[in-house]
Amino acid sequence: MQIIKNSKIDFLNKSRFTTFLSGALILAGIFSLIINNGPKLSIDFKGGTLITVQYTKSININDLRARLKNVNINGQSFDFSNSEIKHFGNASSVAIRLANLENEPENFSQKFIKILKNIYPDALPENKDDFILSIDKVSPKVGSELSGKAMMAILYAITLILIYISFRFEFTFAIGAIAAITHDVIITLGIFSILGYEISLSVIAAFLTIVGYSLNDTIVIFDRIRENLKILKRESAIETVNKSINESLSRTIITSLTTLFVVLTLYFFGGEVIHYFSFALIIGVLVGTYSSIFVASLIVVYMQPKK
């Protein structure tokens, strides 16, 4: 199926604009990461306790924060007003992320939940078991280990891709593929930083998915470029690559739209749990399609020997 037939778009002629666009997005993301002291890490990496509860009426976050300013647990006074408190899914559900405490009382999570019940006693569900949606606790040591392993997973993936593309195509193609993948991950990470979204294990999984998706899209174009470089020896590298992109454009658009429809469905109807995961995939699909055409292919052109 071809939705675009015999297209003759001069993609590489727009390289100045696309280079500026990519540079602007990358710099904006890096600037955001610098002023925010890195990405906003979830409890998976920083450690702490994440408690999610559900009331029967809408909860005012500012009011709840004020009530948690001076909390007494086992004779110790705690100020949880600076903790991250937000709605989870709807206005009656609340998620509270608490940092690890040096002298944490025994059964801290259960005692904190009891305090949450006492704050709004008239807004508790009839079935007490429905009040607690989730309790997640991660120690600082485990969080640090997970952070290191997540970074290594991405580095291993990029290294293996570099080796694979070098064997299947040429080293110049591998450089283009790695540049496109790095471009996609940095822009997605930057957007998360700008919007203040958390980086969790599920988001890392989304990043690895983005790496795979971007590579798949890039390989399709690279395959056509390699074939045309052998056939169209008299044409310049720019003309050959432009022709190759146009020949694979229909497939690229169909694949990207099909994937985008799926991740949009996940984003709007998948619930709060996979909200950030699906958002990362949406950005990844859009940026990955863009980079396969305007980043990876452009680098291949520049690295071809001059005729």
List keywords for this structure.
307 residues, Alpha-Beta Plaits, 4-stranded antiparallel sheet, two-stranded parallel ribbon
Q: What's the layout of helices and strands?
A:
Layout: H1 15-35, E1 40-41, H2 43-46, E2 48-54, H3 61-67, E3 71-73, E4 76-78, E5 84-88, E6 90-98, H4 108-119, E7 132-138, H5 140-168, H6 171-195, E8 198-199, H7 201-231, H8 237-269, H9 275-302
Parallel strand pairs: 1-8
Antiparallel strand pairs: 2-6, 2-7, 3-4, 5-6
Helix pairs in contact: 1-6, 5-6, 5-7, 6-7, 6-9, 7-8, 7-9, 8-9
Within the largest sheet, what's the order of strands?
A: 5-6-2-7
Secondary-structure element sequence? Answer: HEHEHEEEEHEHHEHHH
Overall mean confidence score, pLDDT: 86
Low-confidence stretches: none
- Overall shape: it is elongated
Q: Using the CA coordinates, give the radius of gyration.
A: 25 Å
The CATH architecture designation of the largest domain is: Up-down Bundle
Largest sheet data: 4 strands, antiparallel
CATH superfamily of the largest domain: Multidrug efflux transporter AcrB transmembrane domain
Explain this structure.
It is a single chain. The longest helix has 33 residues, at 237-269. 62% of the residues lie in helices and 12% in strands. A 4-stranded antiparallel β-sheet has the order 5-6-2-7. Strands 1-8 form a two-stranded parallel sheet. The model has no long low-confidence stretch (mean pLDDT 86). The two termini are 36 Å apart. A hairpin with a 1-residue loop joins strand 5 and strand 6 (90-98). With 307 residues, it is an alpha+beta fold. The chain folds into 2 domains: 12-42 and 142-302, Multidrug efflux transporter AcrB transmembrane domain (Multidrug efflux transporter AcrB transmembrane fold), CATH 1.20.1640; 48-138, Alpha-Beta Plaits, CATH 3.30.70.
